[in-house]
Design brief:
Structural class: mainly alpha
Radius of gyration: 19 Å
Order of helices and strands: HHHHHHHHHHHHHH
Low-confidence stretches: 134-152
Number of strands: 0
Length: 287
């Protein structure tokens, strides 16, 4: 047990500087472009899914929260909302960078998510083209409690808060994973997570629905530990919209509509996760 604790702490301390500088850059981006980004999304019209999928992949504080508010006010379309949710990766980028993941992995995940989210958004808007025309309401901004108030706190304070919060969670996740590997064994752990079955993406996509940073941290750590496949991590990162889903249920009063949105992103995650696993495992087509 002591060996697991020491290994976890050593590995976690190694990634701490990377987390800090990554979040420092992200906070700078947030302060500079967040308002412009929201305005761009609002003015994008039928190109909403295209713009949303591109901007959604940029790591910003509470971007999916803004999307939920804009959709609740019917300023953006359902397709644009779905595109943003699917494109958002929450803590994926800083966690992957901090763990020394290959840059090709990070870029590959981002590109795949952008393409899938763009296609899904346009299809949804095409089907529901005239449903929300003429509906405009006042926008009530809802702040993301764990990640917002950035402007009031300043870049440095927000960076420290993000870094500490994620560092603590990373330590917990890494400890649990290291303990599981020690007690169960890596091969048995992969079997439990159904790595090579269609249930892997189903489980991963379900994890992705956790409405905070936990989902992306767990998924990236599992993938980098070879406990889940690339298809499964894509499935989970597609469905992982961060706190945005929780805010959607708060600001959009139509419960049935919210549940349908959750179902849509969950199924999209599963479908593309299974497809990627099939291409890689059975057709030997490396993505």
């Amino acid at each position: 047990m002591l060996d697991v604790v020491l290994e976890t702490l050593i590995d976690a301390v190694k990634i701490l500087p990377f987390l800090f500088f990554t979040y420092l850059l992200m906070e700078y981006i947030e302060h500079k472009v967040s308002e412009k980004t929201r305005e761009t999304i609002k003015k994008s019209g039928r190109l909403g899914p295209f713009v949303g999928s591109i901007l959604g992949c940029v790591p910003q504080c509470g971007f999916s929260v803004s999307a939920s508010n804009l959709y609740a006010a019917r300023v953006i379309s359902l397709g644009t909302l779905i595109a943003i949710f699917l494109s958002t990766s929450d803590e994926m980028i800083p966690i992957a960078i901090a763990n020394g993941a290959n840059i090709s992995f990070i870029l590959k995940v981002i590109v795949i998510k952008v393409i899938i989210s763009m296609i899904a958004g346009f299809i949804i808007d095409y089907i529901l083209r005239n449903k929300n025309k003429g509906q405009e309401e006042h926008i009530h901004e809802v702040c993301e409690h764990e990640n917002c108030n950035c402007e009031e706190k300043g870049i440095l304070k927000s960076t420290i808060k993000h870094t500490v919060n994620i560092f603590i969670f990373v330590v917990i996740v890494m400890f649990v994973l290291n303990l599981a590997v020690m007690l169960i064994g890596k091969d048995n752990l992969s079997n439990i997570l159904m790595q090579n079955t269609i249930f892997g993406p189903m489980i991963a996509s379900l994890i992705g629905l956790i409405p905070n940073c936990a989902a992306s941290v767990i998924l990236v750590e599992l993938y980098l530990s070879d406990a889940i496949t690339f298809g499964s991590v894509i499935a989970g990162l597609l469905s992982g919209a961060g706190i945005g889903l929780a805010v959607l249920f708060k600001v959009n009063k139509k419960l049935s509509e919210n549940l349908k949105i959750v179902g849509i992103i969950y199924m999209i995650g599963i479908i593309f996760g299974i497809l990627i696993n099939f291409l890689e495992q059975f057709l030997n087509f490396k993505i």
